[in-house]
């Protein structure tokens, strides 16, 4: 994310389930990492391009997620390979989930 121009502040927590719940990330949407970018929650290996689109379009959602651990997502495969074979989803305050981008 730093390479894509984002300022990253990493914090380790002992109770990530509580953190995720506090940010409105339901169990089916959860992944390994939880972050906040300009008020939006970003869960898991969401590509930087999708986060930039989220910030540009400013939809009325809580955030984006790449649920689980998609094997062909950024950070899970060799650097430089494009994301492949998974979905990035948006989710809102009421539990509505929609496809944001398919890889």
Provide tags for this entry:
103 residues; alpha+beta; five-stranded mixed beta sheet; 5 strands; globular
Protein architecture, described:
The protein is an alpha+beta fold. The chain has one domain (2-102). Helices cover 17% and strands 23% of the residues. It has helices spanning 16-22, 48-57, and strands at 34-37, 40-44, 63-66, 87-91, 97-102. Strands 1-2-3-4-5 form a five-stranded mixed β-sheet, sandwiched between helices. The longest helix has 10 residues, at 48-57. The two termini are 19 Å apart. The mean pLDDT is 92.
Any idea what the shape is? globular
Largest sheet: 5 strands, mixed
Give the number of helices: 2
| Uncertain parts | none
Estimated share of beta-strand residues: 15-25%
Strand/helix succession? HEEHEEE
Structural class: alpha+beta
Fraction of residues in helix: 10-25%
Question: What order do the strands of the largest sheet run in, or round the barrel if closed?
Answer: 1-2-3-4-5
The overall pLDDT, averaged over residues, is 92
- The structural domain count equals 1
How far the N terminus sits from the C terminus, by CA atoms, comes to 19 Å
Radius of gyration: 13 Å
Tally the beta strands: 5
Compact overview of the structure:
By secondary structure, the protein is of the alpha+beta class. It has one domain.
SSE blueprint:
Layout: H1 16-22, E1 34-37, E2 40-44, H2 48-57, E3 63-66, E4 87-91, E5 97-102
